[in-house]
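Notebook entry, structure prediction.
Reason for the run: the old model in the group folder had no record of what sequence produced it. Starting over properly, with the input documented here first.
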Amino acid sequence: GLKGLCRSLAPEGVLVVWSAGEDERFARRMTEAGLETEVRRVQGRTGKLKRRGRGASYYVFVGRKPGRRQT
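New structure, fully documented this time:
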């Protein structure tokens, strides 16, 4: 699950999950798994809709593992 994914990330590693809908519970679960989480709404644009400035909205859940990378 999310905790396992978090453990597999290097310090400052990033996990990104694409979704068709906003989900506050999923964002909370990412945070509870140990990730600094933010949700971004993105606009999908293709074909004619792109030219008209319209398209479906999607959500990207971005989780960053805290810590410092070793140099």
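Summary: The longest helix spans residues 24-32.
The old model has been moved to the deprecated folder.
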